[in-house]
Design brief:
The protein is mainly alpha-helical and 123 residues long. The chain has six helices and no strands. The chain has one domain: Up-down Bundle (Four Helix Bundle (Hemerythrin (Met), subunit A)), CATH 1.20.120.550.
């Protein structure tokens, strides 16, 4: 299995640490976690939003890696782009929690460009 394909697995689970951070509170109620998460504020709310965005970014990235591998087979560019995607998404989450909006947007854009580049390379 290639690094890029392992990155698909990593990307699938990347939102969960942000979910755990959002739930760090004695007030967290596991009987109704969505109600709790919608009522959070500050960095915990932003951590929840980072989690949600991670789930939104995953399908395009996974499809891009799979299509790239189907067309080109295992390749170094796919591995590099996938690693950059994972790093960008991790940085994105940190910037989101820290409320650094411009840096967060740049990290989001970098990750999105990786997904696009994986498709374009396969074209």
């Amino acid at each position: 299995m290639t690094i890029a394909l392992w990155c698909v697995l990593a990307a699938a689970f990347l939102p969960y640490p942000f979910s755990l951070l959002a739930k760090l509170s004695r007030r967290f109620d596991n009987h109704s976690p969505r109600v709790y998460l919608e009522a959070t504020t500050g960095w915990q709310k932003r951590s929840h939003w980072a989690q949600l965005n991670g789930f939104e970014a995953f399908p395009a990235f996974a499809a891009a890696v799979i299509v790239n591998h189907m067309v080109l087979g295992p390749n170094a560019w796919a591995n590099k782009l996938a690693l950059i995607f994972i790093a960008s998404r991790m940085i994105y989450g940190v910037f989101y929690i820290a409320d650094w909006a411009l840096l967060r947007s740049i990290a989001w854009f970098a990750a999105a460009l990786c997904s696009v580049a994986l498709f374009v390379l396969a074209a």
